[in-house]
Design a protein that fits this description.
Elements (H helix, E strand, L loop, with lengths): L2 H33 L9 H33 L13 E4 L2 E5 L6 E3 L2 E6 L4 H6 L7 E4 L2 E4 L2 E2 L1
Parallel strand pairs: 2-4
Antiparallel strand pairs: 1-2, 1-7, 3-4, 5-6
Helix pairs in contact: 1-2
Length: 150
């Protein structure tokens, strides 16, 4: 994999994170609207209860949106240069799967290949950190082989 192909993977991951952020923003706006009561109308206990629940949910969605922003900022800051050892910013493959190291991300596709995020806080990262192409590691009482690294 060359630098251009690796950048396409990062761009696809950014696009996924941006879509998630847009979705979070839309949910926040929808629930903020639901929490608003018409000040000219007489409010029933049910209206007040539903407004309060919508406001509570809106607060939770604000937290989700803030998390999505942090993830997007983190992804954009990743060093996407070609790696010779597993570290944040690396693309690593083993057991037929490929991962972007150093991020939390759902599966996404780029150039016909599916990738997932692999957090640097995850237990498996501790087993992978610093390994190179062809190295083996044990995790989950199984031996694994690093068969892709970029």
């Amino acid at each position: 994999m060359d630098a251009d192909a690796k950048q396409r993977v990062k761009d696809a991951l950014i696009a996924q994170a941006e879509a998630g952020l847009r979705s979070s923003r839309a949910s926040v706006a929808e629930h903020d609207s639901a929490a608003m009561l018409d000040s000219d109308a007489a409010d029933s206990v049910d209206d007040l209860s539903q407004s309060g629940e919508a406001a509570d949910l809106g607060g939770l969605l604000d937290d989700v949106e803030a998390r999505q922003k942090r993830i997007l900022t983190h992804i954009k800051a990743l060093d996407s240069g070609i790696k010779t050892a597993v570290a944040p910013g690396a693309l690593v493959g083993f057991d037929g799967e490929r991962y972007v190291v150093g991020v939390v991300a759902e599966a996404f596709e780029c150039d016909g290949v599916t990738y997932e995020g692999l957090s640097s806080d995850s237990p498996i990262y501790a087993s992978l950190k610093g390994l190179g192409l062809g190295d083996t590691f044990s995790f989950g009482s199984r031996e694994h082989h690093v068969d892709f690294l970029a």
